[in-house]
Amino acid sequence: MAKSHAAAERLEALVRRLRNDIKFGSFSHGEWLKLIDLQQRYDASQFDIRKCLAELKSQRLVEHRANHGFRVATPDPVQRDQLYFVRTAIERSAARLIVERASADDIATLGRLAAAFDRTVESAGRQHQAAANTAFHDHFFAITGNPVLVETVQALRERSHFGTSGRWRSTDGLRGSGAEHHEMVAAIGRRDADGLDQLIVRHIAAF
Question: What SS3 class is residue 33?
Fold first, then answer.
């Protein structure tokens, strides 16, 4: 039983790592995924890599072609635009509430979380970058005090990451995302709802 549980945890961690790498630009859309390369990159067995790819296929992040193998799926551009439209509308609706409700402690926490993301940019890798980015945005929207809004934003962000235009594919892009985190914190500190609104729009559009 213990061995089975450990194997399940190992596979879950592998799926999470490869999913984040795909979603945040370590692989290009349409890129073929060679089993031997993935085994070496993730220090995993061929069996685990195949199970992982099968799971990601069920999530529509990868595609399988007979006699060819697996490749990274290409997002539907129409669905991507529709998703970003909805995401922008909902996230903008939170701006004024965040500015009104944010305490000094909230602002300080956001500043620390923004700095934590900055520290991942140079060499920490996609897993740490994704976790630090999520921590910042989760606290950002939690300030609204509306758990339904928070859950909706989280779900939309999770879906839209795969459609990224590629900002996270470069260190400069990551730095730009980090700089906008700090601008958002500054806007909240100034109680500038309109400025925060425009930063949210810019942050989503750049992603």
Answer: strand
3-state secondary structure of 192: coil
Residue located via tokens 């596979």: 11
Low-confidence ranges of the chain (pLDDT < 70): 1-3, 124, 161-166
**Tens digits of residue pLDDT in 73-111:** 887 888 888 988 999 999 999 999 999 999 999 999 999
User: CA angle, corner 122, sides to 121 and 128, nearest 5?
Assistant: 50
Q: Is the full-model pTM beyond 0.85?
A: no
Q: Which two tokens stand for residue 164?
A: 């990224």
Residue that has been written with the tokens 């995993």 in this structure: 44
Domains and their CATH numbers in the chain = 2-72 (1.10.10.10), 77-206 (1.20.120.530)
Q: In the beta sheet, which residues pair with residue 70?
A: 33, 64
Dihedral of the CA atoms 83, 86, 91, 94 (nearest 10)? Answer: -160
Are 69 and 49 in contact, with CB atoms under 8 Å apart?
A: no
Decide if 72 contacts 61 (C-beta within 8 A). Answer: yes
The residue among 41, 206, 179, 31 whose CA lies nearest residue 114 is 179
In 38-153, DSSP assigns E strands to 62-65, 69-72
Q: Is residue 193 within 8 Å of residue 123, measured between CB atoms?
A: no
